[in-house]
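Late entry, written up from scratch paper. The run itself happened at the end of the previous shift, but nothing got recorded in the book at the time, so transcribing now.
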Amino acid sequence: MKIAGVGLVLGPLLLLAGVLARIGVGDFYPDQLAAYAADPGRMVWSYSLFAAGVVMLAPGVVELGMRIRVTHPGWAAWGVSLVVLGLFGRVFHAGVSHLAFQLVDALGREEALRVVSETYGAFHVFKAVNVCIMAGWVVLAVGAFRAKALHPVAAVGLALAAALPLGVLKGSSDPVSLAALAGLAVALVPLGVRVLREGSAPRWWLVALVAALVPAAFFLGMVG
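Output as recorded:
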């Protein structure tokens, strides 16, 4: 499945690019808001790349689950379900982070910091998936190892993704986060390359259609 291969390759690389773009910024929300106030373009690119990587991981995770399911359907079902729920949670966090950055533009850095500080612990339904964000990668990695869908080093790299910090306005540029994302890339990018090499190449007109639809979708989203 070509889209799964693209997701397996681009997902980890986009996450890593997003985190590398904010290297040197403190990991928690006061520093993240200050960094946005000082250089909004850098932080928008950083968070956008990270959010895009989270979305791109979804079809790749499903593809890995299908390979695990051949011999270990239970591990596949639980691993994919937990990881995808965790990805939903990260997309929610990205949306709240985006809103927080807009507060800086609308209210100024100090007032935005006050609002975020007073509301940071507010309840939301996605708090329930925080455990999925961490545990899902471990379950999927164990299933991939048992099913021989990944070799041992790749399975360990996949499990390392559980160490990536979660939440709103988390910088995630510390050494632990970089190690977690490097492990994810080691686990998934080679698999993605193999998936892309399997089967026949997509028709030229389909590639052209997708290439045209991407900017069209952005345009419609901006004017809609």
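The chain has one domain: 2-223.
(Scratch paper discarded after transcription.)
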